[in-house]
Design goal:
elongated, 6% helix, Lipocalin
Length: 247
């Protein structure tokens, strides 16, 4: 009962924060076949993105994003698990202060090989989020006024080892990170290339795709664990935490 109360308290605290490079956790399956897990994930990230369209090709620096999720996992086969996430996210950069909107995602983890305390595996996960703002944004000499929205999805694929030492594990490895989406606004735009009023849309891409991450997993007891990790790419970084209860 104390474990359940502790988990509920952490989820409540995280859920009260503002809503990123989502947490990945150990790149291996951690649930037995038929076993469930519930938990909460939080991440903060900073990255550069590319905005293109109407003859524009702009790199927007230092896009901040927060994500918070509740997740449910299930062991679908030996050495294979799947999970879904529901939560919220936002995005902010100079001139754009997005609100917190609904976000969701799913993923899978697999164990490839294990020898003693060393496990090799991989993961795939995907999430969707959007964020809105109303105001004025200066973009590559263009003044954009009106209702603005960023709608994007993220894909992460990682492989690597997990090394367990009693109630403490270290994990990490290389990962592929893909962002795609749209930056839409309904209003006016004035500038050297684009002028007019109405609805406009720019493509959203990321500056970098390959990165490395490292994390630590702590077993609070035989069913509950928490993790903290750092993700780094050439034009992005993220700090993530997670809490998981297996039953």
């Amino acid at each position: 009962m104390k474990t359940v109360k502790f988990l509920a308290l952490i989820i409540l605290i995280w859920s009260s924060q503002a809503m990123a490079l989502p947490p990945m956790g150990p790149p291996k399956a951690d649930l037995e076949q038929g076993q469930y897990s519930v938990g909460s994930d939080y991440s903060f990230s900073v990255m550069d993105i590319e905005l293109s369209g109407y003859g524009l090709n702009v790199t927007q620096k230092d896009v901040d994003s927060n994500m918070i999720f509740a997740n449910l996992g299930y062991g679908i086969a030996p050495n294979l698990e799947a999970f879904v996430r529901l939560g919220a996210a936002n995005a902010e950069f100079e001139g754009f202060s997005g609100d917190t909107e609904f976000a969701y995602g799913f993923g899978t983890k697999a164990t490839f090989a294990q020898e003693g305390d060393l496990t090799w595996g991989g993961l795939f996960q995907m999430s969707w989020a959007n964020s809105e703002d109303t105001g004025t944004l200066i973009l590559d000499g263009h003044t954009i006024t009106g209702t603005q929205e960023i709608d994007f999805y993220e894909i992460q694929i990682a492989v690597g080892p997990t090394y367990k030492m009693e109630r403490f594990s270290i994990y990490g490895g290389p990962f592929l990170h893909i962002i795609d989406g749209k930056y839409d606004w309904n209003g006016t735009v004035t500038g050297p290339i684009v002028n007019g009023s109405g609805s406009f849309s720019l493509d959203v891409k990321q500056e970098s795709e390959l990165g490395l991450y490292i994390g630590a997993l702590f077993d609070i007891n035989e069913n509950v664990s928490c993790s903290v990790e750092y993700q780094q790419a050439s034009d992005a970084y993220g700090i993530c935490t997670g809490l998981r209860w297996r039953f």
